[in-house]
Design goal:
Chain A is an all-beta fold. Helices cover 0% and strands 53% of the residues of chain A. Chain A is globular and about 40 Å long. The termini of chain A are far apart. By secondary structure, chain B is mainly β. In chain B, the strands form 3 sheets. In chain B, strands 2, 5, 6, 10, 11 and 12 form a 6-stranded mixed beta sheet that branches. A 4-stranded antiparallel beta sheet of chain B has the order 3-9-8-7, with no helix packed on it. Chain B has a two-stranded antiparallel sheet with strand order 1-4. Chain B is globular and about 40 Å long. The model of chain B has no long low-confidence stretch (mean pLDDT 92). Classes of the chains: A mainly beta, B mainly beta. Chains A and B meet through strand 4, strand 5, strand 9 and strand 10 of A and strand 6 and strand 11 of B.
């Protein structure tokens, strides 16, 4: 079964540094998402992306965050200047193959981001 | 706004016991409802879903029925196994169609004793 893949599985970064989290969604999907889960807390929506632009973003997704689909396969989340509170598990998800606009979201295994 | 409230854990049961994890939701309109499972060291996997009132989602022996009158989507399994040990998240889609974000409950950790 096709799956969403995320790299790296664990990223350790100094506070203030830029970090890029990478995701390869399922190949025929059209909708892409990032979520995060701070340790011991809920999984929270960050941003959705469709047709090369942001569809919706949460209040968490401030100017320090950006997303990009640089080619036909990757979907990235960039944090420009990381803060300690950005430490979390970040999940990428994709959904919505061509001709079916109501499929559930499929999640990757996540990238654990640790800010020192 | 829309939200999901689920039973706090952890829940510890013996193998072959009956499982119920309660979930209620608050939403405008008619969201789709989901249960996701996260096994140790893995990502979120869709366990089952229901898209309209009275629908029953089922998978791997788990079931949940979309109850609009009680705004609930409780997860049940008749006989749990050690391999069911995981964190279970109740969730809803906030809107219609594939671009809708998912709103998660806080998760319930389930541990099954042999």
């Amino acid at each position: 079964e096709p799956e969403v893949t995320q790299t790296p599985s664990h990223q350790v970064t100094q506070m203030g540094q830029e970090v890029i989290l990478r995701c390869v969604p399922i190949s025929n999907h059209l909708y892409f998402y990032w979520y995060r889960q701070i340790l011991g807390q809920k999984v929270e929506f960050l941003v959705s992306f469709y047709n090369n632009e942001i569809s919706e973003k949460s209040e968490i997704f401030d100017d320090q965050f950006s997303v990009e689909r640089p080619d036909g396969s990757n979907f990235t989340l960039k944090i420009r200047s990381t803060k300690l509170e950005d430490s979390a598990m970040y999940f990428c998800a994709s959904s919505g193959g061509q001709g079916n606009s109501n499929q559930p979201q499929h999640f990757g295994d996540g990238t654990r981001l640790s800010i020192l | 706004g829309n939200s999901v409230t689920q039973m706090e854990g952890p829940v510890t049961l013996s193998e072959e016991a009956f499982l119920t994890i309660n979930c209620t939701y608050t939403a405008t309109g008619y969201p789709s409802l989901f249960w996701y499972v996260q096994y140790p060291g893995e990502g979120l996997q869709l366990l089952l879903k229901a898209t309209k009132a009275d629908d029953k989602g089922s998978n791997k022996g788990f079931e949940a029925t979309y109850r609009k009158e009680t705004t609930s989507f409780h997860l049940e399994k008749g006989s749990v196994q050690v391999s069911d040990s995981a964190v279970y998240f109740c969730a809803l889609s906030d809107g219609t169609g594939s671009a809708s974000k998912i709103i998660f409950g806080s998760g319930t950790r389930l541990s099954i004793r042999p």
